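Note to self: keep these together.
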Amino acid sequence: DVQLQASGGGLVQPGGSLRLSCAASGFSFDDYAIGWFRQAPGKEREGVLCISGDGTTYYADSVKGRFTISKDNAKGMVYLQMNSLKPEDTAVYYCETRDTWGRGTQVTVSS
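Structure:
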């Protein structure tokens, strides 16, 4: 029932910005949390941040002050605003809810 699709990735220079989007359906945005994860080659999957049904957000220390998550319940969309990007942010980014992963989007930060 749950379907997720991340988009908006690309190649950016260090210090640049990207806005990722996730189109989500099949669950209640008011009742379930949804989060962003990332995985780089040779690395374990890392939780980046998530937003609960009531709008509370939880951030990884590595992205505090740089990344922001938001959602539009009516449109079924979740967003990840990524600012001040660093090379170590390079990874495939996924959105996940109810133990279901969507197709990821590649973010590459390089000069």
